Amino acid sequence: MNGLPLISILTFLPLVGAALVFGVDRERRQLARGVTLAVNILALAVVAALWANTNPGEGGMQFAERHVWIPTLGIEYHVGLDGLGLVMLMLAALVIPMAVLASDKIQENVSLYCGLFLFLQGGLFGAFTALNFFHWFLFWELSLIPAFFLIKLWGGPQRSDAALQFFVYTMVGSIALLLAFLALFLATGTFDFLKLAELARTKALGPAVEAKFAWLGWGAGKAYLVLFIGALLGFAVKVPLWPFHTWLPLTYSEAPSPVSMALTGVMSKLGVYGFVRLLLPIFPEPMQALLTPLLWLAVATIVLSAFAALAQRDLKRILAYSSINHLGYCLLGVFAAASATGTALDRTAALNGVVLQMFNHGITASLLFCFVAFLEDRSNGARGLEDFGGLRKVAPVFCGLMGLALFSSLGLPGLNGFIGEFLIFKGVFPLVPWAAVLALPGLLVTANFILTVIQKVWCGPLNEKWARFPDLTYNEGAVVFPATLLMFVLGVWPQFIIAVINPTVAHWVRQLPF
Amino acid sequence: MLAWTIYLSFAGALACLLTPRANPRATRAMAFSTALAGLVCGLIGAVEFKPENGLEVITNVRWIPALGIDFSLAADGISVTLVLLTGIAAVAGVLFSWNIEHRTNEFFAFFFALIGGVYGVFLSLDLFLLFVFYEIAIVPKYFLIAIWGSTRRDYAAMKLALYSFIGSGMVLIGMLAAYAVSGLASFDLQTLAQHSFAPEFQRWAFPLVFVGFAILAGMWPFHTWAPTGHSAAPTAASMLLAGVVMKLGAYGCLRVAMTLFPEGLKMWQHELAALAVTGIVYGALVALVQKDFKFVIGYSSVSHMGFVLLGLVTLNEIGWSGAVLQMFSHGVIAGLLFGVVGRMVYDRAHTRELDALEGMGLARKMPFAAVTFVIAGFASMGMPGFSGFIAELQVLIGAWQAFPRLAIIAGVGIVIGVVYTLKTTAKVFFPDNAIAVESLDDHEHDHPLEPISVQERLGAALLILCTVLIGLHPRLLLDLIVPSFKSPLFDGLRKVAGL
Predict the structure, then answer these.
(1) Global pTM value
(2) Contact B455, B96 (CB under 8 A)
C-alpha cells in the first residue's frame, strides 16, 4: 500500500474518468451517469484507503510524493496529506457523487455534465493535496473551468451573468494571489508551501521580502503586508469574506442545485483551506498586524449575511447567505488563532473547530441544496419562501429529513453543526473576547431565518396547490441517507474526525511564530 | 540540419509555383510535404542541438568580403525555439488553408517565401543577412493579404507594408550607424556585440532599432497595423502574421537592439516597459469592445505581445526566458484562435460580426470548433496547464523584480483578458437565446454548415498538443532557452543587468 503513489492516482483518476465520460454518446445518459458514479466510488475507495493508512500521531505531511518539474523556477511536483487535506479529500469524495446522484432532472447533454463534475473533482483533489504553489494554482484554476460551464450551460435564467461574475471575481482574486506568490518566489527562490512556512516560522520571510523590495521605499514591514493583502484577496473572494461576497448569491441561486451543492460543499472550502494552509503559516505576522480589521470583517460577514438571509424570499438565496454566514465562523477562528495573546490550547481549539466546521458545513449545506433540488423537481422550479406551506402533512419524510439538515445548520447540539461552532467559540472567546461577543448575534439570527424556512415551507395551513406533493422517493432517500447518517454520527461522536485533525492542528500551532 | 529549413522552404516555394494551376491537389501535397519537412528538420536540429554550447555556428561563407558581409547562420536555444514555432505554424497554416482554390499555387509560393524568410531571420548571425531575410518576409505578406484577403484588404495590406517598411528603415539606419561607428568593418553580430558603443551613441541608436523592430511586434502605440492586417488576411496569413511575423519583431529587439546596445536598454528601460504595459492593458480593453470576431483576436495579440516586450526590457534572465517562451506560446495559441475564427467559423458562416454569430447556434452545428475555441481561449487567458501561463508567470516574476508597480498593472491586463475571452466565447458559441436558436435551426435545416474537415482537426490537434505539452512540461523549451543567455552574445547585456 505504501509503495503506491495513492495521491497521484486519486488526482488523475477523475480526470481520466472525465475524458472517458466526455467520449460517451450524449444520448446514452445512463451509461454516462454509471461511469461517473463508478469513478466516484473508486475515488472514495482510494480516499478511504488513505484514511485507513494515515498515521495521525505525527501531524506532518504523509504519503508525500516529490518529483522534479521545472527546476529553473523552483517548481516541483510535490504532494502530501495531513489531517486537513485528508478531511477535505473525504468531503470532495462524498459531495460530488451526491451531487451527481441529485442530477436526475438534467437530461440535456448528460455526458458533458457528468464529465465536468469529474473534472471538477479531479481539480479539487489536486488542489487539496498540492504543496507547491505552481502545482496548487494549476488545480485551483482548473477547478474553475468545469464550474463555469456547469453554471453557464445548465443554470437558471441569469446563468450567463452568474457564470461570468463567478469566474471574473475569482480570477481577480487569483491574479492578486499569483502576483503575491511570484513576489515571494523572487524573494526566497521557492514556491514550496512547507519551505515558505518554515521561513515564516523562523521569522526570515519578512526580512527577505523587505530586502527584495526595499528600494521601493514602502517602509518597514510594508512589503510583506502588501503581499499578504494580495494573497488575502484571492481567498477572501473565494470563501467569501464580506465585502467580497457579492458574486455569491447570484451564482448559488442561478447554478443548478446539484452544482450549488458542489460550490458550497467543496469549492468554498478551497478558500478556507487557503486561509489555513497558506495564509496563517506563511503570513502569520501580517495577519497579526491586521488582526483587528480582519476580525471586524469576519464579524461583519457573520452578522450581515445572517440578516441578509433573513431578508431573502428565495430558498436558494437564503442558503447562499447562510453559507456565507457559516464560513464566516471559520474565518473568525482562523483570524483569532493569529491573536498575539492567548494559549496554544485556545488556538488549537479554534483551529480544530475551523476544520470541523469546514467538513460539517460541507455535508450539511450540500444536503440542504440537495433537498432544494428535490423540491424544485416537484414544484417546476418554484422555490420562493411563500410558494409553499403545510407540506409536512403531505410529505412527512421529506419534511423530517430536511428539517434535520436545517437544525444541523442551525447548530443544534447532537447534530454535526454544533460541535464545530462550539469549538470555534470556545477557542475565540479567550483569544479575542470582543469578536466572539459581537459574532454571537449571528447565531441568533441564523436560528431565526432557519426557523422561518421551516415555518413557511413545512408548517401552517396546507397550500392547496401542493395537495399532491409527492413525498421523498426511495431513490432520493438513498441519496440523502449517507449524509444524514453522517450528521448524526459526527454530532454524537466527533472524535473520529478530531482524532485525524487534532494532531495536525497541534502541529500547526507549534509552528506559529508566536 | 537547421539551415535546411531555410533552403527547403524556398525550394518548396518554387516547387509550389511550378505545380499546375489547374491541379490544386498537387500544390497542396507539395505544400504539406514542404511544411512537414521544415518541421522535421527543425525537430532533428533541436534534438541534436546542445544548448550548453551557446551560439552554434552552422555555416559561414564569405559573401561580400569588401563590406564584411558573410552568409553566416548560427543557432542558440532561442533560435531553435522559434524555428520550431515556425515549423509548427507552417504545418498548421497549410492544413488550415486546404480550402484555398483561387490561384492555389501562387498562394503557397508566397506562403513558403514568407516562411523561408522567417527561418532565415531566426538563424542569421550576420546582421546584413538578417536584414535581407527580414525584408524577404515582408513582401509576400503584402501579396497574401492583397490577393487572398477579405474585409478592406487593400487598405490593410498597404498599412501593414508601410508600417513594416518604416520599421525596417529605422532598423537599417541604426544598423548602418553601428557598422560605421564600430569601425570593425563587419556585420557579424557577435563581433559587433563585443564592441562597446559609446553611451551617447546608444542613447539614440537603441530606441531607433528597438522601436523599428518592435513595430512589427505590435508595440503600442505602433500596433494599429496588427488588428487590421490580421483581420483582412486569409486564415493562414493571419496565423503566420500573429504566429511568427510578430515574433520576428520581438526577436529582432532581443537579438539585435538589445545585444548591440545594452546600455541603451538600461537608459530606456522604464519608458519601454511603460509602453509594453500600456499595450497589455490597452489591447485587452479594446478587444473587450470589438464587434468583429477577428478584431478581438487581433487586439488580444497586441495585448499578449506586450508581455513579450515587458519580459525583454526587465533586464533579468527570468524575464527574458519568459519573453521567449511567450513568443512561442503566443505563436501557437494565436494560430489556433485564428484557425478557429478564420477557417472554421468565417469560411462557413461568412460573417465575423459577433452579433450575427450569436444567433447561429454554432456550438451545436460545429461542436469541434466550439471545443477548440474554448481550449484556445483558456490557453490565451493564461490558465495554468497551458503554455501561456508559464510564460506570463516568468515575465511577471521578472517584472516584479524590475518594476513592481507595472507588474501589478499587467495583472489587471490579465483580468481584462479573462473577461473579453469569456464574453466572446459565450457570445459566439453559447448564447443565451437558446429558443431563438432552436427556431433558426429549423429554418436553416436546408443549409447545414459544411462539416469540419480532417485537415482542420489535425491542425487544431497539433496546436493544442503543443500548448498543453509546453504548459505541463515547459522544460522541453526552457532547457533550450535558459542556457542561451550565457553565451558571449549576451555578455554586454548581462553586464549591464548586473548578472
Answers:
(1) 0.90
(2) yes
